[in-house]
Amino acid sequence: MNTIQQLFDLTGKTALITGGSRGLGLQIAEALGEQGARIVLSARKADELQAAQAHLKALGIDAEWIAADGARDADIVRLADEALAKLGHIDILVNNAGATWGAPAEDHPVEAWDKVMNLNIRGVFLLSQRIGKLSMIPRRYGRIINVASIAGLAGNPPGSMETIAYNTSKGAVVNFTRTLAAEWGEHNITVNALAPGFFPSKMTQGSLDRLGVEAMCASVPLHRLGDDEDLKGAALLFASAAGKHITGQVLAVDGGVSAV
Questions:
Q1: SS3 of 40, please?
Q2: Which helix (H) or strand (E) holds 110?
Q3: PROSITE patterns recorded for this chain (predicted)?
Q4: Of 168, 75, 170, 92, whose CA–CA distance to 132 is shortest?
Q5: CB neighbours (10 Å) of residue 135?
């Protein structure tokens, strides 16, 4: 029987994390790396990836990076192949890269719709498909963690945000998670999703500036926003042996917003 420490230990495991240069992706990289996983980060900008790598290495974490655009098919293929070349195989895939766009539904540009959908769900499918086919299915082992959002669980309160493409894409991530979990369970691959509430980040800064932190916290049962540690435990549960019997689940990390 494994001890609790052993169940959460990721020594010898490998992880590819998209959108890993900052924010939630970097927080997840810290959690998995601190538990012993070898990390490859991906994002579009090399300078931000270099800074993230330096940050992780200062924590004693083995981290490399690959610059790639998760909305471009050719980049997704290259990312998967280069990550496999660096790591040998991929045990844990964290699909975190995402984009949003604010506009009233009646005026939402179709180009912006396509940009959000291509990165937030099409790219998630294509990368998961390639990593699954080339590494996880042949080895009969895998942990896929998709970063959805509470925006994928419901609409937006009137007068708050106008993000129909983002909400739609994250709703798709939720059911993609459930469907892939059911299909790939026979390969000993778990597929789960985190659904964060509001965390201060580059993506949410516009909403925070417009609505104000105090107003945002007022609608949260715990009266706080997410911080730099709040995703770590949940991500580690899904990535480790502690979560080996959990699949197809969506865990809201939102201070209770989705409960009311």
A1: strand
A2: helix 110-117
A3: ADH_SHORT
A4: 92
A5: 22
Cβ-proximal residues to 108 (8 Å cutoff; 6+ apart), any chain: 101, 162, 164, 165
Catalytic residue among 166, 176, 199, 238: 166
Enumerate domains of the chain plus CATH numbers: 4-253 (3.40.50.720)
HSE of 78, CA atoms in CB hemisphere, 13 A = 14
Residue 192 amino acid letter: N
According to the model, what pLDDT value does residue 159 have? 78
Element (DSSP H or E) covering residue 172: helix 164-184
How many angstroms separate the CA atoms of 41 and 61, rounded? 12
In the three-class reduction of DSSP (H, G, I as helix; E, B as strand; rest coil), residue 66 is classed as: strand
pLDDT tens per residue, range 62-114: 999 999 999 999 999 999 999 999 999 999 999 999 999 999 999 999 999 99
Q: How buried is 82 (Cβ within 10 angstroms: 0-12 exposed, 13-18 middle, 19+ buried)? A: middle
β-strands 14-18, 250-253 pairing = unpaired
Does 166 participate in catalysis according to the annotation? yes
Q: Quick one: which of 244, 242, 127, 104 has its CA closest to 185? A: 244
Q: What is the mean pLDDT of the chain?
A: 95
User: Which amino acid would we find at residue 212?
Assistant: G
> Using one digit for the tens of pLDDT, what is the confidence trace for 153-192?
999 888 788 999 999 999 999 999 999 999 999 999 999 9
pLDDT tens digits, residue range 27-59?
999 999 999 999 999 999 999 999 999 999 999
Report how far residue 74's alpha carbon sits from residue 81's, in angstroms, rounded to the nearest whole number: 11
Q: For 137-199, where are the E strands, in sequence order? A: 142-147, 189-196
